[in-house]
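Lab notebook, page 48
Experiment: co-folding of the full assembly
Goal: obtain a model of how the components sit together before planning crosslinking
Operator: M.T.
Materials (sequences as entered):
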Amino acid sequence: MDSKQIELARKFDLTNHFFDFVDRHLMYPLLDNLVTIYDVKEVDNLQFNVLKDTYMTKELKELYLSINPNEKDLPTEYLNRENDIINELVPLNESTKETLNILCSKEIQSNLKQNKIENRELIKTRGIDDDKILELYKFGKLQYNRGDYVMASDLLNNFKLLSINQDLILKATCGKFISDILSGDIEEAKNEMINLRDVIDNRNYQGSSIDQLKLRNWLIHNSLFIFFNENDLKKQSINGNINLQLLNMNEIFLSSSYISTIEASCPWILRYIISSVLYTKDFKRLKDIIKAVEIENYEYNDPFTNLIQNLFIDFKFNKLNEILNNIEILIEIDFFINHLSKDEFINNIIELIIRSVLKIYKKLSINQLFKFVESNLCDLNKLNEIINKSNELKINIENNIVSLNDDENINNPYFTVYEKTKALSFKSNQFLNNASINSI
Amino acid sequence: MSSFFHTSYESDTSSDEESLYYSDDERYLKQLQNKKSVNIQISNDTDDESSDEELLSDSSDDEKIKLKKEEDVEEASGDDDDDDNSDDSDDWSNDDDSDSDSDDSDAPPRGRSYFLKKDFLKGGNDSDSDSGDEKKIVKSAKEKYLDELLNLSNNIENLSMVEEWVKIGNEFDKLFKLAYKHNQYHILIPRSYIKAISILDDLINKSKNDNDDEDDDENNNKKVLSSSESKSLNILKQKIKKEVKTYNDEVLTYKKDPEAYENIKDDSNLINNENQDQNNQLIVSAENLFFIVQSIIDSRGKKGIDLNEHLNTLNKLLDLTNSTYEKIIILNLLISLRYELNSKDKFMSINEWLLTLNDISKLLDILDNDKSYVITENAPSNDNFTKPPPANENGLHLIGGSISSFVERLSDELTTHLLYIDPNSSEYIKTLQNDSKLYSIIIRCQSYLTRIISIDNYSKPEGEQINRIIIKRLENIYYKPIKLIIFSELNNNNNNINNIPKINSSEIDENLNKLNTNNLIDSLCSHIYKYSNGISSSIYRKRAALMQSYYYSITNQFFKARDILHLTHVQATIHTSEPGVQVLFNRAIVQLGLAAFRSGLIEETQIILHEVVTSQHTRDLLGQGRIYFNNNLNNQTNNIVNNTNNNQFNNYNNLNTNNISENGKFVPFHTHVNIELVDIVYYISSLLIEVPLIALQSYQSSTNGANNLLNNELQSQSQNINKNTSRSFKRILDYTERQYFQGPPEETRDYIFDAYHKLIKFNWFESSKILSNLKVWVMMPGISTINENGENGLELLKEMLIKLCKFQSLKTWAYVNAGIIKNYSIKKLSKRFELNEDDICGILGSLISNEEIKGYLKINDDNNSKWIIFENKENGINQIIRGLTTKVNSILERNEKLSLGGYQIMLKKK
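Observation: model returned without errors.
Model output:
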């Protein structure tokens, strides 16, 4: 990338917005992604700062050494911490091991029931009281902190099943959600997300509305890791299926409570909604997006919102080329969007542009059309390919005129009158019958 | 109490000899007084009422004396229970006589008025005197009152001998009610009342003892109380117990020596006190400082006291003393007295105001110099105020008082003053100049409070003081442009204040200044959002939010201002707020509308301003009504803002008597929003929105887009009639169009319709010229500020208007000509409307996309020129057929309903 592009990429980089909403452990991969536009050292520094307060000593050491090549080991405060961790870890490990063993024993497993209270009674007879259960939570937190996400997820899950402290359960669910994302267990994370949504979107949400807002913000940001999960997206694009996950995301994020949260506190999420809608060709949701973009225009814009703004609000098509170029940069650098299949995504964008342009210009030769979309992303061949592929567009081979493939009859006055009146006679007969039956 | 006076009084308990002796003595006094009028004056100085009376009665003095002589004969026959000493035949005997006649209504002998008053009283009794004078009635009422009390207490005394509890109870109830009216007559608790309760107290104690005895001795032969008697006894016991407790000292003195106590006249109490004051004032010195201060405190709230005198004394004392504590005490008192002095006037005179301001700043000086003394609202009460309160654990001496209240009051007084004077006079400007002094006091006070109140206590009642003062500070600056805010911030010479948000320097860069003021307002408001949680917190929060929004509006930060209103949800609860807050809300809304207009958001402008402008009482909604404006307007039916109306108008009638600045129901002139401006802005935005729509409806009504628009409008109309924002504009438009003769524009509103006629002919140039040359733009807030590109507000505004006119006239052109013209070159359009081709393509594109016009854009291959191609307009027969089909369909629908619901529809129709 040349310097101009890097500058642009930095301008539209959203990583700093994520700091407020995403856990340190998740920031790590986000920061990793920044090496393309920032100096490696700078990124390392940031990562070190992010991880400074966690227990991931191994990674810390690596980072520290790469920042300070002359040093041999971490400063003492971090080394001491390692000891602290072990001091903390060992007793907890001992006591929870016992608890887990009891829980795993055949006798308990066979007697477990759906009812949480009964289960609690059952294990109480085995010496597992509330303190022991709380230890599970503590240990889970510790394991998470030192980067053992699988273990943390497991511990927190056990805690969730046994505890009755609703606050801690919510925290544990959040913790497990993140652990599952980090350990790559996406299916499990999806389940947890559903659980979390049950709590957050509950009509009778217990806490204050500000807490609810915060939680929702948190969920919006963290769930992007699931919706834009690389493996899932790849799998589906290979199979040629529409991505259900992203469709699901469109539905959630454009529901009234989420879109208003996004408008109020994190308008940058619009980028992901727009890309998801365009990627999945979920064009019926465009209307909502246009509205949101129009509202938020004054405080947030990026190439994606500019695209929407120019296509559907201002109808200014002359800037599309520039926007397309910018979008390309974003697709490259954005942590989430670059998981999408680039070709498909771009094809969709260009098709949308062509359709919008043709709505206003009706008939354009392929050369004229090409002027609107000419950019790094699109050359003439690609344009042809897209037009040929699309069901909605048609091209007259003789003179290379492209037009929308819509029904001619819609604007035909004879047809409309026919449409409106064809049911009249049938309906009238029906009434007559009804009336005669009633009168008898 | 001076012994001089009460020896000369008499009471019914004194023996005849005594009364003889006293009366002689008194007579002697009288003579003395009569001869030496100077003396009279001196003794009268103590009581304004009586001296007034004397002046009034002086002229008729001699006549009355003559009259008196004649009456005396009848009198003797009327009242002969104690006329032992009415044997003297000279004038003085008459007086003497009358005095002893009404011996129990003991009035002190004071000057010549003394006997005239007796005269009247007696005349009233004998019902053949008609020298009625209002002044005298007051006197006699007091005496009657004392008489009555005495009667009642005598009754009680008599009844107590026989222990008839029911009757005693009744009598005591009467006495009780009566006795507590003593304040009306400006005397202390009447002695006869004390006497009665002491007697009863004794009696009850005795009967209690008796009962105890009875318990010991089972064979009691005492009379058994009936149930009603014992009931009233019990009630009485409770009451007496309470009363004795309240007047413990008095009762004790009475019990010590009942006779002597009774001999003291009730009136004498007050007179003595005042005499003391008089004496003390003669020797103002540091030694008896607390004595004087105490006497002044005691005399507060009483009638007939010369407050100015007190103020002078206190000022002298202030010069004399050096002790911090004493100074604080004196200033505290002095400031409250200053406010009290003017409590009856409509507003404080500016001199008084300045004096008060000086005193407050002196007080703050003292407190800043000696930080061991702290004035706070929640100081523990100090029983002995002659000594400074002991230092608390932090080494601070806490003194009760409230600087924030002083400053609040100071600010209110200035506002009230401004409301009452003519805004066009130089006096107004002079008064307004004091605003900066007030502001610096507010800042000092805020700094002081921030110093004395720890951050942990911000959200406790103690911290409420800070909130109050912050509100005042906001009130002082929120309506000012940035430059003025910075001036007022810099104007106060306390640069050493750094514990509160403040602007200390003016930047050359306007943007930096804006940033600074933004920060200032934000930090002040966020303090209130964060820490205000008392009873009145909702008012403070609302006020802060509204002022913040107002500030952002006038500084052209529309979105911020709008978001504040959105996020705080003020509009949801504004109905229930007090009128002052509602006025502020309306003001903030109007400014928001103006800000939207300046940003070129005409649709928002129209919606925001609609309710205020179309109301009949815009002026009052904005708190800009005239003070003496009396009205009997009917309540009207609208929503949001009109609640304000009702509240306000109901209160209007009381306004003249009440404190009008209260609650900010009215705002002083310099904070007014120009109503003509608001009006014009609303109508211009309506004009710009409506003109294309009118064209659309009349020329393109058959297109889908037009139908959609129409349907939307109908829908919103059926949902809420008030949402139809353009109606009022259309109504006025109709009205002007119906005029046979339309002269050249005179009013500003006429210019709008002038512009309308130009705009409807696509003449954007003329119409924008008319609009941008309106004189009223000078009144637009922020019009003179210069932005980063060196353009001033007026230029920007004109630019915006021209641009909007171009856009809207292009739209109108398209609506009118679509289907008539076949094709048109974009280039030509661009020339005609002086817009670049992209803008034109954008606008036409949006029309095509919304299906408001039928047509498309075309690019010519040869020279790349663009054209707009309009499709043929529907021909007449098509239109008719379309209309017919919709009608047939509606008939079908009706039939459907009819067949399902029987004859209901028919009945409804009828």
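Interpretation: The mean pLDDT of chain B is 72.
Next step: discuss with group before ordering constructs.
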